[in-house]
Automatic annotation (TrEMBL):
SUPFAM superfamilies: Ribbon-helix-helix (SSF47598). This is Toxin-antitoxin system HicB family antitoxin. It comes from Nocardiopsis aegyptia. Residues 49-75 are annotated as: Disordered. InterPro entries: Arc_rbn_hlx_hlx, Ribbon_hlx_hlx. GO terms for biological process: regulation of DNA-templated transcription. It comes from the Bacteria.
Length: 75
């Protein structure tokens, strides 16, 4: 799903809750927004309410480096 197709929502959080989420996200190497989406998806899945047509978590960040075995130049 292209980024432009994603829904935007305004979310009001207690500052202490936001800080805890931001710290947790940093430990998981995610943005705070990605951490919130991850937790919402997990909650939906555990409750049996995940829509069948929901896409997967979008890949974010840098592409993975090629392993030496797949790099033609050996670098």
């Amino acid at each position: 799903m292209p980024v432009s197709d994603r829904k935007k929502v305004l979310l009001r959080l207690d500052p202490a809750v936001h800080d805890a989420l931001a710290r947790w996200a940093g430990q998981e190497l995610r943005s705070t927004n990605a951490q919130i989406e991850f937790l919402l998806r997990r909650a939906l899945d555990e409750a049996g309410r995940m829509p069948k047509d929901a896409g997967g978590m979008p890949r974010r960040g840098r592409p993975r480096k090629k392993s030496p075995e797949t790099d033609e130049n050996g670098a």
